[in-house]
Amino acid sequence: MKKMITQIAVLLILPFFASAQLIYDNGPLVNGPGQGLGGADASYIETATGLSTFGFGHATSTGYRIADDFEIPAGQTWHIDSLIFFAYQTGSTTTSTITDLSWAIWDASPATGGNIIAGDQTANDLDGSYWSNIYRTQEADLQNIQRPVMANRVATVGQLTLGSGTYWLDWQTGGSLSSGPWAPPITINGVAATGNGLQFDGTTWTDVLDGATSDPQGFPFLIYGTVTTGVNENQLASGISISPNPASDLMSIKVSGAESDITIEVTNTLGQVVYSALESGAIFNHQVDVSGWTSGVYLVTLSSAGKKINQKVVIR
Questions:
Q1: Mean pLDDT of 182-201
Q2: 234: phi > 0 → left, psi -120 to 50 → alpha, else beta; which?
């Protein structure tokens, strides 16, 4: 699912930051490549999903913030160089009106007692802002140009290093216009529940829900840097793949080189376990029938001997 936005982001970002390497993409945002005005890309609200929210408030002027999580797999260390966030101000042109951006990384969900381990919620770390070649629209109005989405970068200058685990990234954006800035949610055709994002209203962190359907929403962001890999004892297996992604019928979990039994567990955005199984072979292809599952984002967790590997998948 992530390649849809990655292809766009790489083309736009690399001319500015040639040494950057994309190591994580929490998208996608584009579901209508080339369908916007003049061949631009569209991130449109699909009529069939019943969703209604163009974007979520996280403006510096209001004190609101938003957050979403990411996973660093077992055995990996990430050396983060920069972060890219997306926001728009209704009525802007394709010349960015974004003026500031603050961010922080938490060691657990900010809604459940996590602690900030990097970043600064009060500092303006905006390092660059430019049009992402994306318009946020409705499906019935693909040529609308009221909401050009900006890609907004903060640089960590390679000084941020994180080991394996689950982290939460929160951010806040300011702009020179009166509207927003607004953060567009992850957008996937046929999927109403796209993640487990949070919003802070100045006092409390709460789940991000669509205004019409109350489906939980996630937020796209990009992480650039380098990845180093630990020794074999930190790995569950030499080869793991989950496909197709998105899936609508059968989802295959393939493992080769497993050193011990592997527990497979799938949870939804509410943290509820919807599927579990145990595999004991060194090589296996475990198939899961997802045809009856509710469309949305799920987390597949493979566990063995105290180690875990997580991967987000989309069911539609």
A1: 96
A2: alpha
Mean pLDDT, the chain, integer: 87
Same domain membership, residue 54 and residue 35: yes
Statement to judge: residues 254 and 224 lie in one domain: no
**Using one digit for the tens of pLDDT, what is the confidence trace for 96-109?**
999 999 999 999 99
DSSP string, 120-164: ETTS--EEEEEEEEEEEEEGGGTT--S-EEEEEEEEEEEEEEE-S
For residues 113 and 249, give the distance between their C-alpha atoms in angstroms, rounded to a whole number. 38
Contacts of residue 3, Cβ cutoff 8 Å, sequence gap at least 6? 25, 28
DSSP 312: E
Beta bridge partners of 83: 154, 223
Of 228, 244, 270, which marks where a domain is finished?
228
CB atoms within 10 A of CB 189: 15
10 Å Cβ neighbour count for 282?
14
Cα distances (angstroms) measured from residue 163 to each of 73, 174, 306? 8, 31, 16
Contact between 64 and 217 under an 8 Å Cβ cutoff? The reply is no
